[in-house]
Amino acid sequence: MSPSYRGSLSFALLLPFLLAAQPVATDSYLPALPEIAASLGSASSSLTVFALAFGIGQLPMGSLADRYGRRPVLLTGLAAYAVAALAGALAADASMLTAARAFQGLAVAAILVCARAAVRDLYPARDGPHVMARGLTGLGATALTAPIIGAFIAQHAGWRWVHAVMSLYALVLCAACWRGFGETMQQGETAQAPAGSVREIFQSTEFRAWALLAATTYGGMFCFLLLSPMVYIGYLGLSPQMYGWIPAGGSAVYMLSTIGCRHLLYRQGVLLTVRQGAILSITGAIIQALGCWLLPGTVWPLLLGHGVYSLGHGIHQPCGQAGTVGRLAAPRRSRRVMVRLHHDVRGLLHGADGCRLRRSAVSLRRVADGRADAVRRRDHRDDRLRLVAEGGAVIARWNADHGRSGERGVVRRSALNRRRPRY
User: Do 293 and 244 fall within a single domain?
Assistant: First the structure.
C-alpha cells in the first residue's frame, strides 16, 4: 500500500463494504420485486433503470473523482445513496420509485468508481487483481446475507423497509468513511483532470478489452437479477423467503470463486485464468438452456447452471475491474519520471574522464532502481526499454572513443544491467 495513505481505518477493511453497496442495492431488492409489482404496478423497470444509471454514471463520476479527489466524491455518493434509498421507501407510485432507483444507481457508480480508483492509487498494477479479488471475497460474504435479509424483511415488514435498511447501511458506511477514509490521490493531482481523458480511455485497447469482459459477465448476472424473481416466485411458486436462498447460494459460490481466482492468478497469470472463467460461464448458460428445453418446470437445472456461471463470474469480475483501471497511468507523474531518467542518461555525455563517467553511470543505476517500481506501475515499459537502449548506446560510444573494453576507466554495459539486491 502507498505510504501516502492517511486514513485512520485500513482501506482493506473498507473496500469490501464499499464494493458491497451494489449487491445491497440489488440482491436485497430482488425478493421484494413481486410485492412491488403488486403494490405499484411495475417493478422490473426500476431495476433496469438502476443498472443503466449505474453503468453510464461511471464515466462522469470517474472524471469528478480525478478532478476533486476520491474522498469528497465517495462521501457524496454514500450520502446520495442513503437519500435515494429513503426516497424509494417513500415512493407513492412506480415513476417515483424508478426516479429514486436511477439516482441510487448514480450514487453506486460514484462509490464503486472511487473504491476501484483507490485500489489503483494505493497498489501497483500487478497487485490490483489480487487486491480486488480479496475485496470481492468480502463483497460475496455481504451479498450472501443480503437476499436472505431482504426476503425476511419483505415477507414480514413489507418492501418499503427493504429500502429503509439500504439507507441505514449507507449512513453507517458514510460515517465510517468520514472518520476513517483518507484521500488516496497524490497531492497536486486533484487540481484538474487530464484534458481529453475520456477519449484517451476509450482509445486504450486494454481498457476496451477488460471493460468488455466485466460488462459481459455482469450482463449475464443482470439477466438473473431481472428475471429470476418472476421465474422462481411467479412461475415455479417459491415463497420470497425460500427464493432468498437462491441468490444467497449464488453469492456463496461467487465468494469461493474469488478465493480460487486469487490462487489461480498467482499460479498461472491473468490471461489463462480469464479463459478458464469463460469456459465456466458458457457452460453454466448451456446447462440452464438445456434444462429449460429438456426439463421444463424443474428447478435443479436452473440452480446448477447459475452456480457454474457464478464460478466464472467470480473469476471475471476481479480481473475485469482491476484491468480497466490498472493500465491507465497518471501521465503527468510518469512523464516527469521518464524525463528525469532521460536527463540522467544525457548527463553521461558530459563526463570529462572515466572516473566521472563511472560516477554518472552508478548514479543512473541508483536512480533507475529507485524509480523502477513507479515506472512499472504505470506500465511504461516501452519508454524504459528505450532509455536503457539509449544509455547502452551512450556507453558504447564512450568506450569506442576512449579505449578498449578491458581498459581501466571504461564503463561496461553490465554495470547498468546488474541488479541491486532487494531487502
Answer: yes
Q: Exposed (0-12), middle (13-18) or buried (19+): which is 226, by Cβ within 10 Å?
A: middle
Lowest mean pLDDT among 177-191, 247-261, 301-315, 333-347: 333-347
Quote the cell numbers at residue 291: 434444462
Give the type of residue at 66: D
Domain-ending residue, one of 274, 293, 326: 326
pLDDT in tens, 282-297: 999 999 999 989 988 8
The reply to whether 228 falls in a domain is: yes
Q: Is residue 4 part of a domain?
A: no
Give 102-142 as a DSSP string: HHHHHHHHHHHHHHHHHHHHHS-GGGHHHHHHHHHHHHHHH
**Is the pLDDT at 116 greater than 90, yes or no?**
no
| Residue 348 banded pLDDT, cuts 50, 70, 90 | very low
For residues 337 and 308, membership in a common domain is answered with no
Q: How many CB atoms lie within 10 A of CB 138?
A: 20
Q: What is the pLDDT of residue 394?
A: 64
The residue length of the chain stands at 423
Residue 229 and residue 158 share a domain: yes
Residue 349: give the domain boundaries. Answer: 331-417
The predicted structure's pLDDT at residue 155: 85
CA 47 to chain centre: 22
Distances (CA, A) of 50 to 163, 277, 288: 14, 27, 26
